[in-house]
Amino acid sequence: METDNRQLQVKDIFSNQLVSCSWHTPLTDAVKQMKAHQVSAIFVLKGNDIAGIWTESDCVKLNFENPTFTHTPIGALMASPVHAIGIDKTLGEATIKFHQLAIRHLLVKDENKQAVGVVSLSDIVRNQGLDHYLHFRPIEEHFERKVCILKSDDCISRAIEVMKSQRVTAVLVYNQALEQYGIVTQRDIAYMVLNPDWQIHCWQLSSYPMHYVTPSDSLFDAYRLMTTKSIRHLVVKDANTHEVIGLLGLKNVLTEIETAYCSELEKVLAQRDIALQKSEKNLYLANRIIDASLDGIMITRSTGEIIQVNPAFSALTGFHDYEVLGKDPSMLSSGLHGEEYYQQMWQQLSEKGVWQGEICNRKKNGDVYVEWLTIIEIKEPYSEDVLYAAIFSDITERKNAEEKIVRLAYFDELTSLPNRRLFHDRLSMALASAHRDTQTLAVMFIDLDRFKEVNDSLGHSAGDQLLVQVSERIKAMLKEGDTLARLGGDEFVILLTEVKDIDSVVSFANRILQQLSMPFELGEVCVAATASIGAAIYPEDGLDSEALLKHADVAMYRSKEIGRNSFQLYKASMNARSLERLSMLSRFQSALKNSEFELYFQPLQCLTSSRINSVECLLRWQDPNLGMISPAQFIPLAEELGLITQLDKWVVNRACEQMAFWRSQGAEIRRIAINISAQFLSQGDLALTVANALTKHRLKGQYLEIELTESSFISNLHEAKMQLKQLKNLGVSIALDDFGTGYSALSYLTKLPIDILKIDASFIAKIPDEYGNSEIVSAIIAMAKALNLQVVAEGVEKPEQRQFLQKLGCHTLQGYLFCKPLAANNWMNFYNSVKLTS
After folding, report:
1. Helix (H, G, I), strand (E, B) or coil at 69
2. The predicted structure's pLDDT at residue 734
């Protein structure tokens, strides 16, 4: 007896070969895995979850003009989301899902919702037993007639362009010398990612010779030939002229099988509504349709007795068929609808023969859910018996999602405060009311100070807790009609309505600062939080939403500039300062592009030999319009804008280049020192950047010194230690700059591979006269000697400072007493003059 394949389940045909890679995997590595496992699709993991899928057919979407596209993370190219199906689902259910979603792969999950494999539409089609159908289908109607035929010496990029523009999976290639046809497919292009060379000829990548069929051959003949030869394409030739007239792919054959199968399945599903109108005697004809339906179906007599339910009914309600058969549907009632509701339902059923709408029912476990219910009245043609078919689906998640979407559209998910959109709506309404009633209102911007440090040191969970507690404290201070909103990150904004006077705004801001100054309990840790607040008043500081928000923001930034934990009302001069800051940003970015930065060099003198020990690089910005700009201006700006790392990398390469040049000129300089920012150290690629620069300029690591401040280690001591060890392995020296001004310098001396201590100039400036500073400097030098560290005194400007340091046994001095920073073109003259006099 022939098996009904529609009763097969996904577990009978799926492949447990689930090839996957991480979100960050480069494209080339992902393709390597696909090739190794001979699969056409690879699943993409983000953490432990499957987040996307990439297939061979996606290769033509790649930007081949980008020289680094092969290193693009697969996560940036994948299709998402990945749709899944249960392992116990029938092939009919799987087919419906394929067609509803217009996809060809489904992730297979077991009873515990764990991914166990993959099933494709082709897998289902091959299990339908429809080979006999192909015998009666000639190739004539199913092959691709418009096939692009390229020359053998055409560039492979031409093939890619054709596949992309014409949306085809393969192109033919004709070799006139061999009088043969070959073929280049999407799989060939995908595998080229492993060894990209878009200038090779098409023939070098094509597969040949090709097998031929004629239009009169059957699809079954073609399918058998493809299966036997393990190929996926056949050339179609005219039976009389033997001229190539098209291309037949395995996809064409499978599509025809799919069409036949889906057509057959759709016919059966279409009979569902007709079958439900027949008497109980004919209900068995619809059993398979009912069983395959994803909707719950319940059939009752006119007396209300349940006579049939389908598997989906049990899955949705939790009741097995034997628990409900013979009972009344009222057992599902939630009790939330009154008698009038059901009376209207039955009245419409009586008048129209159908009722449709939302209704709340109760599951076996007691959960109330919302379902979309359709009830159809079915009358027997030759009987007075009436049946009712209830078809329903659980739309609780959809309703919840709709509510969540509405909430997300207007409220912040973390704090439940109004978001930017809702705040703008309320501000617009408040402005209209204030204008009409001649009232005053205020907009107040709040930005938490150093919130990033909480995130970095305690984790994002603690940061989220802090934001929630901050919002609760401020919200408790508002009066009715006022609004607190979260714009994102650690930025909040307040709308104060019916403001009496400016003093009330100032008083309210001070109360906020006082509330936030009290410690916050984040788990087992207590932290203090401060804020920078700025406010703009209507109508004095602006007449519309945009002006008020902009000016409140400007005032908030002014609060940060004057030292944080403060409040500022908007002044017109602040806007000018904000524009100046934007101008500085624009000029800074232009300076990076136009090489306006240059290095100056300040020598360090050995106190024993008076010779030049080493030289420190100092960055300068020569703006064509403003002249020389101080590092005190542009370094903080670069750090704030996230451009400091780019500057650091430029300095590393430029310094190594300069040192290599000096050595080629015979200069005997022991080391060149480079200052590195905390941001660059925390990113983790400092050692790699230095190694590449040394290699590029053929320089040994012993000629390079990296200077870091104590603040560089605060956020992640472990990562800093790893980076510095890698630098030491390169032979590079490590100096601790501005020593004595940080938080826990002594612990760093024992934990990090430091070679040199640079005493901060603020200590040197007050020696030898000021008591206390002299003792501190003496102690630092004595400690450094005990730890076998070199000591550099910064900012030496007076002879008596030099004498004092020399008596203490300090190794090296740096400062204007010996030499100011010099431009590169003046450096060699100075070096040669010192060399001659020493």
Report:
1. helix
2. 94
* Residue 38 tokens, joined: 């001979």
How far apart (Å, rounded) are the C-alpha atoms in residues 621 and 618?
10
User: What confidence category does residue 603 fall into, taking pLDDT thresholds of 50, 70 and 90?
Assistant: very high
CB 407 within 8 A of CB 497: no
Question: Rounded CA gap, 685 and 727, in Å?
Answer: 11
The H-or-E segment that residue 688 falls in is helix 686-696
| pLDDT at residue 53, as a whole number | 92
Helix (H) or strand (E) holding 761: helix 761-764
Query: Buried b / exposed e across 470-482, counting CB within 10 Å, b at 16+?
Result: bbeebbeeeeeeb
* Angle 466-471-476 from CA coordinates, rounded to 5°: 130
CA atoms of 554 and 573, how far apart (whole Å): 10
Question: Closest by alpha carbon to 184, among 198, 170, 201?
Answer: 170
Side-chain-side CA neighbours of residue 63 (13 Å): 9
| Mean pLDDT over the full length of the chain | 84
Category of 167 on φ-ψ map: left (φ > 0), alpha (ψ -120 to 50) or beta = left
| pLDDT beyond 90 at 672 | yes
Mean pLDDT throughout 594-619? 91
Rounded distance, CA 267 to CA 282, Å? 17
Average pLDDT over residues 293-302: 88
CA distance 308 to 651: 79
Three-state DSSP state, 56: helix
Q: Is beta strand 41-46 parallel, antiparallel or unpaired with respect to 49-55?
A: antiparallel
Q: What percent of the chain has pLDDT over 70?
A: 89
| Selection from 745, 675, 746, 667 nearest residue 707 by Cα | 675
* Residues contacting residue 628 through CB under 8 Å, at least 6 positions apart: 620, 621, 622
pLDDT of residue 280: 47
CA distances from 47 to 22, 105, 824 (A): 8, 22, 50
Which positions ≥6 away from 164 have C-beta within 8 Å?
Answer: 60, 61
In this model, does residue 581 exceed pLDDT 80? no
- 10, 94 Cβ separation under 8 angstroms: yes
Q: First CA to last CA across the chain, in angstroms?
A: 107
Above 80 in pLDDT, residue 457? no
Single pTM value for the model: 0.40
Handedness of CA 59, 60, 62, 65 (dihedral sign): positive
> Using one digit for the tens of pLDDT, what is the confidence trace for 119-144?
987 777 677 665 666 777 788 878 88
Q: Is the pLDDT of residue 276 over 60?
A: no
What are the residues whose beta carbons fall under 8 Å from the beta carbon of 320, sequence distance 6 or more?
314
pLDDT band at 684 (very low <50, low <70, confident <90, very high): confident
Measured in whole angstroms, the distance separating CA 266 from the mean position of its chain's CA atoms is: 40
Residue predicted with more confidence, 126 or 160: 160
CB atoms within 10 A of CB 806: 12
Strand partners, 674: 706
Structure token digits, residue 354: 């159908």
Burial environment of residue 456 by CB neighbours within 10 A (0 to 12, 13 to 18, 19 or more): middle
Q: CA-to-CA distance for 204 and 188, rounded, in angstroms?
A: 11
The values of phi and psi at residue 791, to 5°, are -120, 130
Alpha helices in 368-518 (DSSP H): 396-410, 420-437, 451-458, 460-475, 502-517
* Token representation of residue 240: 């009389």
Burial bucket for residue 212 (CB in 10 Å: 0-12, 13-18, 19+): middle
Per-residue pLDDT tens digits for 620-663: 988 887 788 888 778 877 776 677 888 899 999 999 999 999 99
Q: Beta partners for 57?
A: none
pLDDT in the model for residue 381: 60
The closest of 33, 15, 20 to 108, measured between CA atoms, is 15
d(CA 522, CA 520): 6
Tokens 């009302």 map to which residue? 569
Q: Give the chain's radius of gyration (CA, Å).
A: 38
